[in-house]
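Hey team,

Filing this mostly as a record. A colleague (T.K.) asked me to run one chain through the structure pipeline before their review meeting, and I want the input and output archived in the tracker in case anyone asks later how it was produced. No errors, nothing strange. Just documentation.

Input sequence:
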Amino acid sequence: MGTIRRAITKDHQYLGELAEEVFSIYGDDYGVMIPAYARDVRVITLVYEDHQVRVAFIQVGFLEAPGNRRDLIADILAVAVVPAYHGRGYGTALFHRVFELLRPMRERGTITDVQLTVADTNGRATHLFRRLGFEITDDQYGTYEGAQKAIRMGLGPLPGSEDPE
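Output structure:
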């Protein structure tokens, strides 16, 4: 299909433009926030290219687990697909690549959880996340700037691996 690679500086404008296009209904700052995350060393940003056209990206940040500074939580900060390319498996492919990257950390016990937040109005994304194994952990997590309810979802064992516990 295509290539998944780490984002580079030349991708930052693209990340901001796609974020602005797909996330603007949730708030005004995504066009600035997403490129800023891409510059942060605690965030992995992957870009999906199909025939040398950037069609999607995903970002994963790492947070200290509450009560234990040695454990980390992988937080899926954003996943976006160019609307004309929806339904072609790009989001799924990006998640599978992220799971491959996280698997060794999960097996060593470095990562204790994988989580994400989704708007209650984003049925397409929620369906994808459920299909990948995410479950709702907090259906009252907060509210987006665009007034949508924020839902927190967590992942049990990473797909394609045995949970070490």
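Quick notes for T.K.: The chain has four helices and seven strands. The CA atoms of residues 11 and 150 lie 28 Å apart.
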